[in-house]
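hey team, just a heads up i'm posting the complex here instead of the shared drive bc the drive is being weird again. everything in one block, sequence lines first with there labels, then the predicted structure for the whole assembly after. its two chains so it's a bit long, scroll down
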Amino acid sequence: MTLAAPDHATASPAGPQRPGAQRWLWPVALLLTLALGWAAPLLEALPGLGWLIRVPSALVIDMQAAVRGFMDWLVNRAHFGLFTFRELTRGIAWLVDQPYQAARFVLVEGWVEGRGARAVTHFPPLSWIAITAIVTTMGWHAGGWRLAAFVGGCFLYLAVFGQWASAMVTLASIVIAVPFGVGLGLLLGVAAYLSPRFDRALRPVLDLMQTVPIFAYLVPILFLFGFGPVAALVATVIYAMPPMVRVTTLALHSVPEEIREFAAMVGCTRNQRIWRVLVPAAKPDLMVGVNQVIMLSLNMVIIASMIGAGGLGFDVLNALRRLNIGAGIEAGLAIVALAVALDRLSQAYARRSARPPTASGMSWLARNRWAPALVAVAVLSGLLGLIWPPAQSFPAEWQITTRDFWASLVRTINVNYFDQLEAFKNALLLNVMIPLRRFLLALPWVWVLALVTLAGWRLGGARLAGLCAALVMFIAMAGLWEPAMITLYLCGLSVVIAALIGIPLGVLAASGHRAGRVIGGFIDTLQTLPSFVYLIPVVMLFRVGDFAAMIAVVLYALAPAVRYTAHGLRSVPSELIEAGTVSGCTRWQMLWRIRLPMAVPEILLGINQTIMLALSMLVITALVGTRDLGQEVYIALTRADVGQGIIAGLGVAAIAIIADRLIAAGAARTRARLGLTGRGGS
Amino acid sequence: MTEGTVTLACRNVWKIYGPDPSALLAGGSVPDAAAIAASGHVCAVGGVDIEVRAGEIFVIMGLSGSGKSTLIRCLSRLVEPTAGEILFDGQDLLRASPRELIEIRRHRMGMVFQHFALLPHLTVLQNVAFPLQVQGMARPAREDRAREVIALVGLEGREGHYPRELSGGQQQRVGIARSLAAEPDLWFLDEPFSALDPLIRREMQDEFLRVQRLLQKTIVFITHDFDEAIRLADRIAIMKDGVLVQVATPEELVLRPADEYVAAFTAHVARAKVVTLGAIMTEGAPPGDTAGRLPASARIEDMAARIEASALPHAVIDDADRVIGHVGRQAVIDVLVNRGRG
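-- predicted structure starts here --
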């Protein structure tokens, strides 16, 4: 790999070798696009050309009605002979509800009989002392004293700042959703590993699950599983599971060939091979998937609070609606504390599984002498709580609130910097955003179709071109052209800005300077935060609208651009760097001529991730009033309109899949040109 | 080497990769290399016949890409051959059902891998006991047996360690112990020492020979190292481009290489290590007094000092103690300095 790379990189820079016509293809296409966008209003006035500019209404099919009809059939008439489909889903809901109630019982409510003033608590939930002790011990177990202190601190924050009850509701959902997500993901991943045919069938489904915005499938899930926390749990599992499936299949495939042969040679049956050899051997990789499931579950649980699960997300939303800035920030920080604690903890467990313990040959209890102590703490604090309530639940009079502080801080910023913020916002709106939006909306749809298809054909051949054309046609025929173009404008602009900020930050992070390391750590933390959190400061400073939405999207989608750039730069082979040094490259030459070109495929993948995150965040920003596909989905949610939600959701997925496939094909081509081997795709 | 019963035989085994390999072999005709390449196929193993006798160390030697790894995987049916027969104690492995194959592998085959293939999440003891656990053996019994084989390869005291806490040589000892835990009759070793440093490699070869003297397994041993092959082998099969070039004892290979390719390997071998007294003696009774009697099967390297030290020739005797020839100082020196035909 390292030997081939420099040859290819220097001997065949793609430009000069391309025939002239192809070299001019994209500049010409760009000029034509600009011209068309400018001239479209004039063309539209010409008779007989209108259908080329606007999607003709004859082409639009009422897909929403079809989806509504199907959903109606599914909910009301579909059956398997003995029971209906709805009974099946309600049965599943009941099954999921049992462990969920148990988790709430342990973490939130305890065993209470009666309501209101006559309520009798038979058994209290785990006390705040016990839960903090448990997570602290887990931190110590997984990563030593520093992690223990960190995790313990995060949970203490929840108690001291009065977020405990909501946080425990959120935690209860996660505690249930994560095992379901990990278990199902593992099973599906193993099945995909065993059967390539199942794998091929599963991939597009996973693509859809990851790209269709969450709000879109909330409505059908509500219909099938009933309103309430269980529907939120089901949605969470659907949302959080796909990475686990992918990680499992990938991890099992990357177990060394010899280990697989070994399993065959000792005469393992299929089940022994999978569960005794391959899965344990792939455990460090699988733990990365578990970490992802946890973080995505948290993200989703926060969003799902809106459909009645309660918890921290609900507090934030509530505060935002009432413009209670202090309470919003406080609850948002609680989400941050919970997210960071869970992330560090699960990452530490992932690292731990890569290096097995050295102390062996002892019994479990001897190795885990802390376990009985922990049980003792839980029981004692519970008992103590019966006579001295502060040991059970953190007393309100000890709580500290930062609400006023935050509220006054934001007020100060708004009072003192209102003009600057407003000027910045207006300048960007008037000079960039609104013109771009007008331009995109004016573009003839046939031209957009042609451009996307051409890009697909150039980057990936006939199949990709066909896929791109079909997806663009879907958007047109679903009657979603206008919101789709607005989505493109918001998402595109956000991604460009995120890349402009993120790539230089990535370069800095990879430079090995102290500042770089700090940036890297900061970005890592930023990426663990649930998307919802990003809305809080943005709304407070810029209120609602496209601009606020764009800022939130940029913040949320920034992380992968930084991370992938830094990773791409760091993984340039050291021989190449040495070769550059020996040739007398300056630092800038090294960066521009060696490191950045070699990192292009990785940076492209980072941009791809940025686009995916931007699209998923766009749907969230519908809460602050955009007019794109996300808004369509969100309106459908509030109206409980299955058809509108699903079709608009599929529209978002179509855009995501086009972007993903085009960039993946581009990255694969660059990779091949640089002579780098390894995985392409997303 | 005495002629024993044949434990493992493979007859006309082919492994061809490509779009439609079996079509090439249809009709019983033997395709030539050019035809295979022209049709877009790659021939990894081409019509190989081998007989491995009970209790012998049969080494398959070849450079990378020669098909030796594919061949051992065909013999163990890790890779499904395109055509041919593989007889293990008279039973055709290629016709064994999946269930039968699992039974055969559990109880009668063992394999050692180039990169050890130890399970990272298990201790040494658990790794070695793993094949027995798979069979469903109870824990005390399998751990007792595992401790026995761990002691056999000299790793007592390391039972509780995890693989990554061990050196490469120690890890391969674990691999060897594990492959012996189920007491297999047939032992496959796929370049077991290639990933080790040269000094450790030599130590492991000695260790391997010691274990084999104790256990007398039937062994198929793969290597790309000719020196290793002649050190360990009773017989060597040399492979090139998927085809067997020559199957012979180390001595025959050195004395009578089948072609230029084999000769190129043997050219730099110190002959004294391989050639026996029987090959250089003058036949017939010694002309006069002799300094002593030496067996014909002894290697020159081991006897050179003794023969060279004496002015008188030594008588050479066969297995039945009969004098069949004599050997003097000059013949030994000729071999040591690589003079004459050797």
